[in-house]
């Protein structure tokens, strides 16, 4: 059960839940308390690790509406805005990352990047992605058993793909992976966070400068040659590239590993998928809904007083829109705790909603489809080498996942 704690002195808050809440015994379930929140406290008070308080919004309809409410901001430079992952107030103020901006600044960055992340572009990359996946599967096959699927498949495939799309030298992938891990770790100190942000930003600025002298057919080259009348600095452009790099890599790594585990734990569904490859797109969307790995990535702050589900939210108060809870809402999904390939409603919020919906979702879907279909075609008897409850999970990361996944086949 989630700990109940006393609100900070003088806050006007009584006994509240500590947040984030830990998942239960099953790694595929969101915290059990989310069900209580949806039924009894759809907008509730919670206490973060640093002693600050936030509002938690749990129901699908309220989360969806809140993510497009212009009275609510995600601007990372706003005093009091929570930090992604539920670690408290953001010590860095990463406003130069477009995912932490409001319109109209956000729209300028997104319009620059959007043409390179359409479904048409993602599908055009599919044959090349297939080659990347096949190479990783060759490495997996030649590694001996048990083999760590995270190290041999889940990490190298997204890393290679996003480096290719952005124009980042793949030889530098360990550098950006290590800095991104610091930024996603809820236990990172403020100094470590600042250092990781600065190091990544400096690295990206260097790449932009190199692309001006040595252009390529990639996103960084297009950013480096953005129209001057947009008024974007190299720091702005580097922040946009950095956001894509982090999101496209870390989220897909965790989905590949945890999704593989979930599929092996649902053998009847997996048998259907092996028999009918046309079901894989539906399987990917259901995995995205079912696993809720990015549940802690939607912190916001109220710009003015407003009401959500009858609860008064004051200007300057922080909020978390719990997409993982929304994706298990009984009012939207029949038997939401079940993994169902044939679920008719696919309006999940795993990629967010509205203006800040994940830019790389099309690329992610194609990657996941290719990885899962290829993995279970090549290794039809693949299974975890240890019991699910003995694996090490990322309970202290803003993105949930598994650290290692030893498999046999």
Compact summary:
This protein is 44% helix and 10% strand.
Cα gyration radius (Å) = 21 Å
The top level CATH class name: Mainly Alpha
Global shape: globular
SS summary, helix count: 15
Structural class per helix/strand content?
Answer: alpha+beta
Strands, count? 12
- What strand line-up does the widest sheet have? 1-2-3-4-10-7-5
Helix content: 40-55%
CATH topology term: Cytochrome p450
Q: Mind describing the biggest β-sheet?
A: 7 strands, mixed
What's the CATH H-level superfamily name? Cytochrome P450
Keywords: Heme, Iron, Metal-binding, Monooxygenase, Oxidoreductase
Protein name: Pentalenic acid synthase
InterPro entries: Cyt_P450, Cyt_P450_B, Cyt_P450_CS, Cyt_P450_sf
GO molecular function: heme binding; iron ion binding; monooxygenase activity; oxidoreductase activity, acting on paired donors, with incorporation or reduction of molecular oxygen
Provide the fold topology:
Blueprint: E1 4-6, E2 15-18, H1 33-40, E3 43-47, E4 53-57, H2 60-66, E5 72-73, H3 105-113, H4 119-124, H5 126-141, E6 147-148, H6 149-154, H7 156-166, H8 173-184, H9 190-213, H10 219-224, H11 234-264, H12 267-275, H13 280-291, E7 299-302, E8 306-308, E9 311-313, E10 318-321, H14 323-326, H15 361-378, E11 383-384, E12 406-408
Helix pairs in contact: 5-7, 5-15, 7-11, 8-9, 8-11, 9-11, 11-13, 11-15, 13-15
């Amino acid at each position: 059960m989630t700990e109940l704690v006393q609100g900070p002195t003088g806050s006007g808050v009584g006994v509240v839940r500590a947040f984030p809440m830990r998942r239960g015994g099953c790694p595929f379930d969101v915290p059990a308390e989310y069900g209580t929140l949806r039924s009894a406290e759809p907008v509730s008070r919670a206490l973060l690790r640093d002693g600050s308080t936030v509002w938690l919004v749990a129901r699908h309809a309220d989360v969806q509406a809140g993510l497009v409410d212009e009275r609510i901001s995600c601007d990372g430079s706003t005093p009091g805005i929570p930090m992604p992952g539920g670690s408290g107030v953001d010590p860095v103020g990463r406003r130069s990352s477009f995912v932490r901006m409001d319109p109209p600044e956000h729209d300028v960055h997104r319009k620059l990047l959007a043409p390179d992340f359409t479904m048409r572009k993602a599908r055009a990359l599919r044959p090349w992605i297939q080659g990347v996946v096949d190479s990783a599967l060759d490495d997996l096959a030649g590694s001996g058993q048990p083999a760590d699927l995270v190290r041999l498949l889940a990490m190298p495939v997204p890393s290679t793909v996003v480096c290719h799309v952005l124009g980042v030298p793949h030889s530098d992938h360990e550098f950006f992976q290590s800095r991104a891990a610091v930024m996603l770790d809820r236990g990172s100190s403020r100094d470590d966070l600042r250092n990781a942000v600065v190091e990544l930003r400096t690295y990206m600025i260097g790449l932009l400068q190199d692309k001006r002298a040595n252009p390529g057919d990639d996103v960084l080259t297009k950013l480096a040659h953005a129209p001057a009348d947009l008024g974007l600095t190299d720091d702005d452009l580097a922040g946009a590239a950095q956001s894509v790099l982090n999101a496209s890599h870390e989220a897909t790594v965790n989905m590949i590993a945890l999704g593989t585990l979930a599929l092996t734990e649902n053998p009847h569904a997996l048998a259907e998928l092996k028999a009918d490859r046309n079901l894989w797109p539906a399987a990917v969307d259901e995995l995205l809904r079912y696993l809720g790995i990015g549940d802690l990535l939607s912190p916001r702050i109220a710009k003015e007083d407003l009401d959500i589900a009858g609860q008064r939210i004051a200007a300057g108060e922080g909020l978390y829109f719990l997409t993982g809870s929304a994706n298990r809402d009984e009012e939207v999904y029949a038997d939401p705790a079940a993994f169902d390939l044939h679920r008719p409603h696919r309006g999940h919020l795993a990629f967010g909603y509205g203006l800040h919906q994940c830019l790389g979702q099309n690329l992610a879907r194609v990657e996941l489809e290719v990885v899962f279909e290829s993995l279970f075609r090549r290794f039809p008897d693949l299974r975890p080498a240890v019991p699910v409850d003995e694996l090490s999970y990322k309970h202290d990361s803003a993105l949930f996942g598994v650290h290692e996944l030893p498999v046999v086949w």
